[in-house]
Design goal:
Two copies of one chain form a homodimer. By secondary structure, chain A is α/β, with parallel strands linked by helices. The first copy, chain A, is built from 14 helices and seven strands. Helix content of chain A is 57%, strand content 12%. In chain A, α9 (205-211) links the parallel β5 (188-194) and β6.
Chain lengths: 348, 348
């Protein structure tokens, strides 16, 4: 309970902060165009806001951003905690900014709804990269629903692209649902693994491995190299057990070491090869169109929901039902039924 | 893509199977009352069905089940893959049926949307328990959204309770979102851990540990006992770092071994103590009321969504937008906006 309250309190203070200054979408867009990080950060906060007052502005902002958004490569990165995601992203990010690219890191964090001090919110992460003028790092709390995260992260991608970022790294942690969400909004999906630990501790293999366009075995350094090579063979073998991908891509297994900065440029080459061959066979566009359709369907659901929760009569009826449930006068299931019937009658 | 298609195909064949025989809610309820497992399984399939034709029957079924549902203890069990959840649940389940209890095991599986052969769907799991006449085991695919899983698992709990099950074990796997969903529908939340592996590989500690009412260190047998005892001290210490729970309960850390059948009855005692003290201080009811309110809110959202997706005019407009997105004529975001505006006008 305490956590829920904290989360609520957090978002209330965020809303207040936004309210204090009158938000000008045009000014935000100007800042975004100039690649001003503060404007970009503020824009993402606006889009993430649950306040109905911000909804219209957020929509305007996304609409305008879509028209100026550049085309980036969107890369999803996942792996269980302890696999070294932060250091890996730091090194990959630095490598890319050294090449003159602009890199944005968005983190989808399924745990932050529960705990304020989630691992992705850790302030000491990616210290180097966060100081880089060509890098933008943004951990995003998931809010109430994972569907919610997905939508907002997708919109954050658009905002980053409008701000001229070439490479968007979407980081996620966990086994399952958040990966599915992230997979549905990136071009390339990378799975980080370790060689040392038993596979059974590295999370569910099947579902996540099936989504991977590449597996990078991290911490392939020092005494670990031999084991990492063995793991490489094993993972390659395991990947062969899956049916070939529709897009014709054969997932690669690479060794890398974030600490020794090894295998990072090789990985970037793989990603570039992937993009080239997907653009050649048309699948890059096919995939983005499919993702757009999913984005649309999710947005529709989300907007229908928020439409009703902006109607006073609906909110009042809902609150009455909550009171009745609280005093055990009605079962939650019947209450929902009754509320919907009431609102159906209003429709006619 | 192939996976998505498979999932769709699966649900289509499921729907066809249901359609073949005319479903009689009364007959299902009769079967459920008699504790007929086939009827219970069929009832859960009906509730899980996405077919609008089944919606009304599912609602009738839940409504009737609510009126005959007995009061069970609902226990959530989580832990990363490899921690031995299946063997643990098998032994706990057998211990409980030996005491004359009826045990239902429901599995919330966030990965099965992706992969047909998910680890929770493994047929060789819980072989003993699945043969027990007083046990019912049901792995539930998560479907599209995790919100969806939550609602359906909650309803499956009601169906099991209507069928006279005293103890409902809700199993989940993963780090994050699915635990939050399961936590919101159980009375007691158990976290399984291992002593051997480093904590960093055991998933995110903070969020999940904060929810736990007990931590059981599994595989505390053979050479592992000393390490398990050390882990017990460490986890107890870690738990003390959290602020005290509102309900006054101090989470316990236990050792157990599913293989040697040790620590299982002790765990059951802890759960019974928990229930007794929560019932005494009123928190058991407070918590269930809070969960009921969340259930209501989720059901309302879900039903609003499905209401629109049953309207022909809405479906047609949505399909037109999808076509326009597919041919790059409109951005997904604008399409959603336009669809909603159209439907708003219909409301007036």
């Amino acid at each position: 309970m305490a956590n829920l309250k904290n989360t609520q309190h957090d978002s209330i203070s965020k809303i207040r902060k936004l309210r204090k200054e009158e938000i000008s979408v045009d000014r935000l867009i100007e800042g975004i165009k100039k690649s001003d990080k503060a404007s970009l950060a503020k824009a993402i906060t606006l889009v993430e806001s649950a306040n109905p007052e911000h909804l219209e502005k957020a929509e305007e902002l996304i609409g305008k951003s879509l028209s100026i958004a550049s085309r980036s490569v969107r890369i999803g990165i996942t792996g269980v905690p302890g696999v070294g995601k932060s250091s890996f992203i730091e090194v990959l990010g630095k490598t890319l900014t050294d090449m003159g690219k602009k890199v944005a890191v968005l983190a989808v964090d399924p745990t932050s709804a529960l705990s304020k001090g989630s691992i992705l919110g850790d302030k000491t992460r990616m210290e180097e990269l966060s100081k880089d003028p060509n890098a933008f790092i943004r951990p995003s709390p998931s809010g109430k629903s994972l569907g919610g995260v997905a939508r907002k992260t997708r919109e954050s991608i658009i905002l980053c692209e409008a701000s001229g970022y070439d490479v968007i790294l979407v980081e996620t942690v966990g086994v399952g649902q958040s990966e599915i969400a992230v997979h549905s909004m990136v071009d390339f999906f990378l799975l980080l693994k370790l060689s040392g630990a038993g596979d059974e501790l590295q999370g569910i293999k099947r579902g996540i491995m099936e989504m991977a366009d590449a597996i990078a075995i991290n911490k392939a350094d020092g005494n670990n190299i031999e084991r990492a090579k063995l793991a490489q063979v094993e993972f390659s073998r395991a990947l062969h057990l899956y049916p070939p991908k529709e897009n014709g891509w054969v997932p690669k297994v690479l060794l890398c070491s974030a600490i020794e900065n090894k295998g990072i440029t090789e990985l970037w080459e793989v990603i570039q090869n992937f993009c080239k061959s997907m653009k050649d066979n048309g699948y890059f566009e096919t995939n983005r169109r499919l993702q757009n359709k999913n984005w649309f369907l999710q947005t529709v659901d989300e907007q229908i929901r928020s439409y009703f929760h902006q109607q006073k009569s609906f909110i009042t009826a809902e609150e009455e039902m909550l009171k009745a449930i609280d005093s055990n006068q009605i079962s939650p299931y019947h209450a929902a039924r009754k509320l919907l019937d009431q609102f159906k009658n209003q429709l006619k």
